[in-house]
Amino acid sequence: MTVVLAVVCSDGVVIGADSQITDSERGLSFPAQKLHPLGSCAAWGGSGARGVLNDLRPLLEDSATAILEAPDIGDELQERVLPVFKKHYENYIPDVPGEGDGGGVSAYLLAAGYSQGGPWIVEINPNGLIGRYEDVGFHAIGSGAPMAQQAGALLSHFRMTERSVEYGVVGVVRVLEALDRTSPSVGEPFSVACIREEGAHHLDEKEIAKALKDSKRWRDLEQEALDRLFD
Questions:
Q1: pTM of this prediction?
Q2: Which end of the chain is more exposed for a tag (fewer CB within 10 A), N or C?
Q3: Contacts of 187 (CB under 8 A, 6+ apart)
């Protein structure tokens, strides 16, 4: 299971991902980096076929400036990503004699950043369609996305879009923690990037550890408030 999620904040956007890769065919799971820089003021993550995502990584790294300076970032991402998708789709052999289900080649991409005067969240789905979610303020992809969307809905009353990226970081980490507890195929270490107008900052291990402590303090404060509800 994979989850990549992004949330819009008052002064930027935060994007995060888990690091657990599950190979169901071989019964293996292992950590892997799922969140990658996209130029100086954006980041992206993907879910689905690793071969597709591995091909996208150098392509997006090399074309980051053109993507971020394009009149429409969604259109530019689509133009870069679709040839990679099509190449894998055209060469995919769905039925191999003597082998079980080898999986598919579909992949999702979620990118978030701050450019052209504001934050943005763009999804390219396996069909090549563009989704824009900065107006919604939250989006997630991956097999863990339905649970992430539910967790995001449960946190919506905290009005993250009206708070700074510091709050967004803790909100993203809290959603990832919830999925870590409920799914054996979502796991740490978590990757998080907070992106403001001045650029993207990818949190290091110490900063992630602090975000985890802040998440725990948030839960403790909620518990304290609930304990006093009927005082």
A1: 0.90
A2: C
A3: 18, 19, 20, 29, 31, 180
